[in-house]
Amino acid sequence: MTSPFIHPATTSALYRDGSRLAARTSALHQAKIRGRPVADVIAGIATAHLPHPHQAIVADLGCGRGTSSRILAAHLRPRGLLAIDSSQAMLTTARARLTDTATAVIYIRADFHRLPFGDGVCDLVVAAFCLYHAPDPRPVIAEIARVLAPAGIAILVTKSADSYRTLDYLVAAAGLDTRATGRPSLYQTAHSGNLEALTAPILPVIGVEHEEHRFAFTGPDHVAAYLATTPKYELPPAMAADPDAIAAALRTQIADGPVTTTSTVTYVIAGKGSFP
Ligand SMILES: C[S@@+](CC[C@H](N)C(=O)[O-])C[C@H]1O[C@@H](n2cnc3c(N)ncnc32)[C@H](O)[C@@H]1O
């Protein structure tokens, strides 16, 4: 079985407009009780590794709603920021959220397998929570290596394959998807356990950081708000996008108390090694 995250039809439905990703991000954000904001960590790593951030050309691959792009623009104030995504709707959302920056931002609709710029033009390439949309992330990492300047760095970010595992058991126990615990991880192709090994033969790895994030959903309604946005499970069609129906099914299994779960976020920092 393969992850729905690598099926083009599922992925384009997920990112057809910004609302589903925004709802998913919001449900997770409200539940988070431990873990640094990912965009801030990325900006911190970039600042530590780039000798002249203000002169840098930065590419944010799979920029989505522009969460990392915004923080990178604010913290690094780079010479230019290339916000790249295959979804026009995501680029439109990112553009609307990046109004208060002095950085020149160029929004480019492109597939990260074929970046529409020349060799060695980027000082920093960020690929956060998107490489697992590639059936094989290695060609994408090779493309990142191609566009990186000799002293440039790449920051690749993903989650652990067992992210939000508690929810699998809950979904199965509530009868929402009796095979939930056997469904493939959404992060199957690029996760905390394989991203360093995928990267190293293509782009030398400078460092790896893992951080466990903890989540406490307030109760069935909060869990349901998240479940209605994830393609991981095969929920009954009438329920799939109906948080109230999902919550009612969950109430048969859990009381109105918190549901805790975890996800490890992994940052792989890589570069060609020609540092000044
Ligand atoms: C979960 S969002 C990540 C958003 C953002 N990087 C962040 O950290 O908040 C994944 C993004 O990857 C984009 N994406 C998926 N496949 C892609 C591809 N082949 N080329 C470029 N972008 C892609 C999706 O459209 C989506 O906006």
Hetero groups: S-adenosylmethionine
N- and C-termini, Cα separation = 45 Å
In angstroms, what is the radius of gyration? 19 Å
Number of distinct beta strands? 8
Mind telling me which CATH architecture this is? 3-Layer(aba) Sandwich
Structural class based on helices, strands and sheet pairing:
alpha/beta
Estimate what percentage of residues fall within beta strands.
15-25%
Roughly how much helix do the residues carry, as a percent range? 25-40%
Uncertain spans? none
CATH superfamily caption: Vaccinia Virus protein VP39
What is the mean pLDDT? 94
State the assembly state of the protein chains: single chain
Reported for the largest beta sheet, the result is: 8 strands, mixed
| Anisotropy-based shape | elongated
Highest-level CATH class: Alpha Beta
CATH domain fold name = Rossmann fold
Total helices: the number is 10
Report strand order across the widest sheet: 1-7-8-6-5-2-3-4
Please tell me the total number of domains.
Answer: 1
